[in-house]
Specification:
Elements: E1 3-8, H1 12-24, E2 28-34, E3 45-46, H2 49-54, E4 61-64, H3 71-80, E5 84-87, H4 95-107, E6 112-114, H5 122-131, E7 136-144, H6 147-150, H7 166-179, E8 184-194, E9 202-209, E10 216-222, E11 230-237, E12 242-246, E13 251-254, E14 257-261, H8 266-280, H9 288-298, E15 300-305
Parallel strand pairs: 1-2, 1-4, 2-3, 4-5, 5-6, 7-10, 8-15
Antiparallel strand pairs: 7-11, 8-9, 9-10, 11-12, 12-13, 13-14
Helix pairs in contact: 3-4, 7-9
């Protein structure tokens, strides 16, 4: 029997990814939606999460796809309603909230799944295997895209808790935290903030390995890139090959030779994994990418840049 799923928040990511992937996955049945945009097909639709939770619609789980700021309260109410949780990235705007949600889900004996879609590519898995147990001498992230193309008219991304350029940048961090054989820490962060906005449009970050060995780890994030978009991670293994992840983690080059190139099926993999978690009764809660972003803001030195219009 398929799991009865509700989707809360029918914005761009839900329309482009969640709804099509749920429709293709026989383990799930779309049983309800919450949207300010109005009804979706013939699926029972509600204007608020509270209306959904108070209804007689039977659900097993909900996917939370709204911006991160209101997630915590909605997630708690979903857990109180006895529902399992899938959280679109980033799961919450703060570390404190995600840590509290993890504890609350455990207390309620409900499954919580923090999705990081960029982790679900074959090239990322292969890079992780090659780096396992190795000393990594260099990592450089270059994550540059056009905010006007990917977030047209979305004002929430520029508000406190909206992440700014770290909304895409956290995708890169999710790959880095997955493939690195040890934790890394932020040492310095320079944040370029438009004079009329609250969150950065660009950032330069330095990191260090937890083991303390000499290394060169850095990241450049920029939301002003037009033309071809850059979602690149370069890695040098001490005494080993050079790895290059390209196109958001869908391609892997080893010493310049293309070894893995598969089309992105990130959200298909997310829902396949969620099904496995529901069947096994296991939670999958990963806060490492959010922790790096939090530390970038904590250690960040703000530099004013031209207004964004």
């Amino acid at each position: 029997m398929a799991y009865r799923l509700g989707i809360i928040g029918l914005g761009k990511i839900a329309q482009d990814q969640h709804l099509p992937c749920v429709a293709k996955n026989g383990d799930f049945e779309l049983a309800a939606v919450v949207s300010s945009r109005g009804p979706y097909k013939d699926v029972p639709s509600f204007k608020t999460p509270e209306e959904l939770f108070a209804s007689k619609v039977k659900l097993d789980a909900v996917s939370l796809c709204m911006p991160p700021e209101p997630r915590f309260d909605i997630a708690r109410k979903a857990l109180d309603a006895g529902l399992h949780l899938l959280l679109e990235k980033p799961p919450t705007p703060t570390m404190g909230e995600i840590e509290a949600l993890i504890q609350y889900a455990e207390a309620k004996n409900r499954i919580l799944f923090t999705t990081w879609h960029s982790q679900y590519n074959a090239a990322v898995d292969d890079a992780k295997k090659l780096m396992a147990g190795k000393k990594i001498s260099k990592v450089h992230v270059s994550w540059k895209e056009d905010v006007r193309h990917w977030h047209p008219g979305q004002e929430w991304i520029w508000e406190p808790g909206g992440f700014g350029v770290f909304d895409p940048g956290i995708n890169a961090f999710s790959i880095v935290t997955k493939i690195m054989p040890e934790p890394i820490f932020v040492t310095e962060s320079v944040l370029e903030v438009p004079s009329n906005r609250a969150t950065p449009i660009a950032a330069k970050i330095s990191f260090k390995p937890s083991s303390g060995h000499e290394a060169d780890y850095s990241a450049e994030l920029d939301w002003r890139q037009t033309g071809e978009q850059s979602w690149n991670i370069d890695v040098e293994i001490s005494g080993g090959p050079k790895l290059a992840l390209r196109k958001g983690g869908t391609e892997l080059y080893i010493d310049g030779a293309l070894k893995v190139a598969e089309p992105s099926q990130e959200y298909e993999a997310i829902y396949a994994h969620f099904s496995k978690l529901l069947k096994s009764g296991s939670t999958h809660a990963d806060a490492a990418p959010l922790r790096l972003v939090s530390d970038c803001f904590m250690l960040g030195r703000q530099v004013a840049t031209e207004a964004f219009v």
